Amino acid sequence: MRECKIVSRKFDLEDAHTLKVSKANGGYRTLEKLKEYSPTDIIKIITDANLRGKGGGGAPAGPKWELMPQESEKPSFLAVNCDESEPGTFKDRQIISKDPHLLIEGILITCYAIKAKHAYIYIRGEYKQYQDILQSAIDEAYEAGLLDACDITIHRGAGAYICGEKSALLESMEGKRGHPRLKPKQKEPEWYFGNPTLVNNVETIASVPFIIQNGADAYKAYGTERSPGTLLFAMSGHIERPGVYEAEFGTSMMEYINVYGAGIKNGKKLKAVIPGGVSCGVLTAKEVENLTLDYEALRNVGSALGTGGMIVMDEDTCMVTALKNILEFYHEESCGQCTPCREGTGWVDKLVGKILDKRGTKEDIDKLLDIADTMNGKTVCVFAPAVSTVIVSFIKRFRDEFEGAL
Amino acid sequence: MSFKFSDENLREIEALKKRYPSSKALTLPCLWMVEYQEGFISLDAIDEISKHTDTPPMEVYRVATFYTMFHLEPQKKVNVQVCKTLSCKLCGSDKILEHLKKKDVNIVHVECLGSCGTAPVMQIDDVNYENLTTQKVDEILKEIK
């Protein structure tokens, strides 16, 4: 496993959140390159590098940038998604608290490429501590004249998981409830007050300076062919050394857990891993043995890479309790716009609670699968389908435990 | 009980208006200002926000009730928000919750606070306290009071 530091290069430096330390270590140097490249050149490099969105979906960033109009009467905007609320995910906070200037540099390049004059950073309300660090970095950048051509404003959320969904995020930024919008049939940019807008995750934007500085090939030298580059993978749960460690795509999952995480806590045996935030299907220890950390490998086993935030569970974990915990989360966080999701999340939560209370029957397990099917693909956003995947993955892989709990 | 924004907040609102394509975008920032100024969002404050954001009071109210971090009533005790989501649960948040129940604080069960690698975690007044033990909880509460 080779060390790769594309985004986390300055994380270990003292005071790397200050402009002085950032600049002394190569910060903002990419801005010089903007004189050589036109906006469309920049977009081409990002497309060539096949930079994939690092907020969970993994959609290629370049084609999304291409949707932004280069000539438009309306102003274009950039919205940076820092609503990191997926349980098990805590990587963006590392960027904004340890190297906020890298994000600002990335924003400046992105805004140049999509011809935006204003970028908003939508940050979750619970991150006030880190928001303050980011704001001082922005203030420093303003004072140094770095933001003369492009404004940056932080917009603070107030405790709604769904606002991490890009259209809900924009609704929230328009001063409304965070209800996701219907997806258009054709490919088009997102809209903020009717103006073309690009929404990207913090880590995606923070990866841009490296690519522009070193070229698409330097980025593609890491990772696999279809998932190039690196990701700030993270580990939590029953692990000796939880934390965020950058690694390239295609890294062996077991090796990552054993080398960076120093293995399972208290020398216990591994039972299961949720690979990328709770919305990805759970995997058994046996499946994890041969898996690599990239989008394709995880999709092939019916799960997803998601945000790369792994939740590790040891042999003593009760999977019914774990599922109950996740369903409580979804029940609390469903935005309530679509009936299958609003009603479904409460219903499955109750049913698993019933099984935990030893009042369950075999029909309840089938009922869970039935509701999961009803929730899949019948709502505005992917929240309900994610709940559906989680339920099915738990029951499919640990059915004996659910039956044993009856 | 009428509500008025402080002069500082009024200046902030005017400054923010220049940073958004529409004043409607100011609903969330204004709600935050009220939350910090008063400790909760009163109906009078909602009327006041409505004037600044060019949004009907009912819509402001709808927004205020959607986001869990806004309080619609005055808070009497210290609010301790304990994360109860999976990573914290696996790392012993139940024990912390049991311990807190013996204290004179208002316990709020919240979903993931984004501190999964330093679980279990609680948040008091926007500050995260991580890698909690019962002993650490005692020390933190002592310091706050």
Question: What do these coordinates show?
Answer:
The complex is a heterodimer of chains A (406) and B (145). By secondary structure, chain A is an alpha/beta fold. Chain A folds into 3 domains: 19-220, 3-Layer(aba) Sandwich (Rossmann fold), CATH 3.40.50.11540; 230-314, Ubiquitin-like (UB roll), CATH 3.10.20; 319-404, NADH-ubiquinone oxidoreductase 51kDa subunit, iron-sulphur binding domain (de novo design (two linked rop proteins)), CATH 1.20.1440.230. Helix content of chain A is 43%, strand content 15%. Chain A is built from 16 helices and 12 strands. In chain A, the strands form 3 sheets. Chain A has a 5-stranded mixed β-sheet, with helices on both faces. In chain A, strands 7-6-12-9-10 form a 5-stranded mixed β-sheet. The model of chain A has no long low-confidence stretch (mean pLDDT 97). Helix content of chain B is 47%, strand content 11%. Chain B has helices at residues 7-17, 27-38, 43-53, 57-66, 86-90, 93-100, 134-144, and strands spanning 79-83, 106-110, 122-124, 127-129. The longest helix of chain B has 12 residues, at 27-38. In chain B, a hairpin with a 2-residue loop joins strand 3 and strand 4 (127-129). Chain B has 2 domains: 7-66, NADH-quinone oxidoreductase subunit E (Arc Repressor Mutant, subunit A, Orthogonal Bundle), CATH 1.10.10.1590; 79-144, Glutaredoxin. Chain B is of the alpha+beta class and 145 residues long. Chains A and B meet through strand 3, strand 6, strand 12 and helix 13 of A and helix 2, helix 4 and helix 5 of B.
